Structure formats: structure tokens, C-alpha cells
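Input.
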Amino acid sequence: MTILSVPGTYNVRGIGSAASPWLLRSATLDAITEAGASVLARLKVALVLDLRDSGERGVVRHPIPVHHLPIFEATDAAPHGQSPVSPVSPYGETLEEIYETILYARAAQLTQAVAVVADTPGTVLVHCAAGKDRTGLVVALTLLAAGAAPDDVVDDYARSTTEVRLFRRDLADAALRELPLTEEEYEAALSLHLDSPADALRHVLTVLDRFGGVEAYLVRGGLTIDQFHALRERYAASLGTDPDTALD
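Output.
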């Protein structure tokens, strides 16, 4: 995983070679600059996969095709990642609880997102608002399906904390200070909105084990053998190795 600088957004990482990653993840591209769009063009991004609902999206400021695939619909109760205005999420009080609920309740949407990456012949950039939670789950599932080591997937997820805290701390702080929270509740809510602790993603791996692993989870959601192979070939090519196409 390579940390990248793209003017107008943040929390950008590439999977694959630094010059030509096969998968990118980032925060929103709503404020991307011409210089930032040029970076994406240089990286040969073929598709942007936007996981936000219609109420969150701003004006598209780049020429790359966008596939909108909201993990949550506008009619759903908003997950905590969409807006830092609630001390807790309606999906749970900890990231572990939130992610577990999402894995059970939004398996079809998560699988569809992985399928989009598998079906796109070029580089895909996945983003939501901060690139932390919805993006974190989709990228984790994609990498696991592609054959990445779980420890590497956890490490990539955990890297979001530094940049999200840098770019969203003031926004979250201003919203949460308006609420009648104790200092302990404030700190817990702030962490919920800004942090990506490794243990939260490790819990995701534990939940996936209940389904028989990531392959069984995604097959149940509709991912095909050909799509698994496409992801594994792309990931193996980025490592310069032969893909292991055997599925359990």
C-alpha cells in the first residue's frame, strides 16, 4: 500500500505499484483540484466508485466516469461516517458493533461494490466521505477476495486514522461540542468518527469467519468465480506472482 498525495482530497492510498496501482481508496473527491484530477489521470484511474448516497454527493469535478453505489440509502438511518453530528451511530455504539451490523444488513451492497472492482478492467478508486468506514469495508473485502494477507488488510485499514484525524478533527469537534455530552462521551464519539483501530477490522475478520470466510460471504452475496479470479489475477500481477485461483 502506498500513501499518495492528491490535491483536493485526503486519505489516499494505492494498492499495487506506486506508479500504477490497480486499486485506490480515498476520501471524497468533491473538492478535488485540477492538479488532483491530473494525478488520477496519471495513475490511469478508469472508474470512481462512490459509496455515498445522493444526499451526500457534491458536484463531480473530474472527468473520470463515476459509478454511484450507496452502501446506505437516503431513507436509511444515517451511519456515523456520513455526518459527525450524533454521539453514537444507530448501527451500534462501537465500530465493532457498527461493522458487524453492516456486514449482516448490507451484504448485497458490499458484494456489489466488490463486483464493480472485479468487473472494471482498469484502476478503480473507491471512496465515501472520509474513506474510513464504508470504503474501509469494501476495500478490505476486495483485498481479502483478491488473496491479500489478513494482516496486510488490517494494516491498510488502520492507516486511515492519521489523515482522517488531521482533516476532519475540527469538523467533528465543532459538531460534537454542540451536543450535551460528558467529556468521556465526547472522546468516545470523536474516536468513533475519526479512528480506524486495527481491532475493529480484526472483528470484521471474526464475523466473516461465521460465514465460512470471505469467499463464502461474497459468494452468498452474489460474487462469481470469474470475479474472484479477476481480482486474484490483478492482485497477483501487482505483486509479480502467479495467482492462486483455487477457491475453497
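The mean pLDDT is 89.
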